[in-house]
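Postdoc handover notes: sequence design on the structure in folder B. Input tokens:
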């Protein structure tokens, strides 16, 4: 997540939102999160809150249409909130004031579910039939609080470079398989007057996405390594970790090499997608969820996708995409559960995956992949590296990373300043 503005999922969901959630925990009685919220359908109408509008929300609009067709008389009202730093705080406030939605999307998946679960604001969904059909890695990731499952992780998102095949052919550039080849491709396009890499820096989260995808390929953050947990615990400083310094230095090198538009820090995510599908940009680092936005403007665009070649042996960077959860005080939890059960049915889930342009989180089910995603699918299947679990980022430090990386992109930041910001934010974990 991304996850995302209307798309991906900035992990940087404001420290304010976390503070609200933690404060609410004091009102929750200290027991585990509400378990087994009633299956009784109290109304034929429910409210579903998400941050995904525009092309990114097509997967939900289609699902809702199919659900309502299969269940005459039932209504799902989809409400879109800004996917920025206010998202969590608005939702936690509504949940505590008696105006809770029936279903909502946790942007960024399990990592961002913790403020809600820690504050006992969600319904335990572990008894739902679809839980048994989640792939093992997704099922484990969904257990965010004391081994319980509080959300339906609906997809796995693979990140990488989308690339304009026509531009690559025109300038005789081969698909990069390592960092040196990527740097060579950047130099070729830069010399030709073509923007090498599109980046919606104004929205912040796309910059973060590239940064922590690079970090995920560092040996410091390999699964099982103690560095990430030590960063979260505050027993090790970000400035003392080679993996984060190297990541930010490499990102700074990309900026110095003019890999991005000179005004990248002032370009929004939607505008960067438009620039790419218009042929103004050679490469575009994003998650598979960007496909609807890319295809929305140019359905026949000859676009491919290749893995981030920062550490070619690390594998494809993936994250857990959209996660749907039911508030503990949802007015119509029964209908929300019915909706999730409908989504989990094979045909409906296949349709969802195809619309979402995403990889499956359920066993033996897959959608029809876009040709660009099909190109990277073998690499995803061969080896993947999860972008967030071992990087040491929390909500607060992710926000600091975003601020520091965007400053570097704008030309007024440095690696040392970004690391200092991360160290300072660590105190608020």
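Designed sequence:
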């Amino acid at each position: 997540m991304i996850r995302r503005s209307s798309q991906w999922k900035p992990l940087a969901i404001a420290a304010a939102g976390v503070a609200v959630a933690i404060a609410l925990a004091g009102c929750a009685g200290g027991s585990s999160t509400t378990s087994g919220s009633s299956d009784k359908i109290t109304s034929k109408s429910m409210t579903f809150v998400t941050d995904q509008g525009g092309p990114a929300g097509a997967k939900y609009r289609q699902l809702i249409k199919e659900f309502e067709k299969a269940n005459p008389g039932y209504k799902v009202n989809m409400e879109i909130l800004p996917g920025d730093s206010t998202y969590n705080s608005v939702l936690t406030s509504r949940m505590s004031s008696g105006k809770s939605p029936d279903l909502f999307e946790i942007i960024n998946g399990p990592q961002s579910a913790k403020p809600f679960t820690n504050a006992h604001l969600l319904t335990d969904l572990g008894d739902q039939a679809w839980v048994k059909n989640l792939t093992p890695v997704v099922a484990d990731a969904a257990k965010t609080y004391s081994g319980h499952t509080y959300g339906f992780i609906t997809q796995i998102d693979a990140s990488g470079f989308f690339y304009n095949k026509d531009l690559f052919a025109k300038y005789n550039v081969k698909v990069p398989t390592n960092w040196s080849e990527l740097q060579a491709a950047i130099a070729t396009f830069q010399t030709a007057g073509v923007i090498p890499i599109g980046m919606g820096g104004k929205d912040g989260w796309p910059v973060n996405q590239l940064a922590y995808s690079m970090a995920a390929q560092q040996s410091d953050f390999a699964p099982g390594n103690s560095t990430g947990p030590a960063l979260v615990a505050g027993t090790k400083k970000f400035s003392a970790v080679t993996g984060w310094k190297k990541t930010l230095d490499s990102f700074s090198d990309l900026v110095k090499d003019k890999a991005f538009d000179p005004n990248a820090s002032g370009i929004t995510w939607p505008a960067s997608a438009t620039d790419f599908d218009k042929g103004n940009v050679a490469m575009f680092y994003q998650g598979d969820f960007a496909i609807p936005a890319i295809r929305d403007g140019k359905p026949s665009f000859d676009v491919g996708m290749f893995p981030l070649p920062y550490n070619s042996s690390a594998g494809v960077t993936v994250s857990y995409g959209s996660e749907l959860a039911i508030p503990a005080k949802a007015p119509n939890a029964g209908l929300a559960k019915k909706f999730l059960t409908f989504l989990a049915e094979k045909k409906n889930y296949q349709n969802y995956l195809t619309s979402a342009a995403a990889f499956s989180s359920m066993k033996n089910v897959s959608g029809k992949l876009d040709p660009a995603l099909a190109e990277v699918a073998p690499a995803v299947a061969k080896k993947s590296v999860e972008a967030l679990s071992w990087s040491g980022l929390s909500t607060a430090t992710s926000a600091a990373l975003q601020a520091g990386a965007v400053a570097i992109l704008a030309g007024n930041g440095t690696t040392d300043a970004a690391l200092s910001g991360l160290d300072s934010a660590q105190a608020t974990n």
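Context for whoever picks this up: The chain has two domains: 15-155+321-362, 159-317+388-426. Don't rerun without checking with the PI first.
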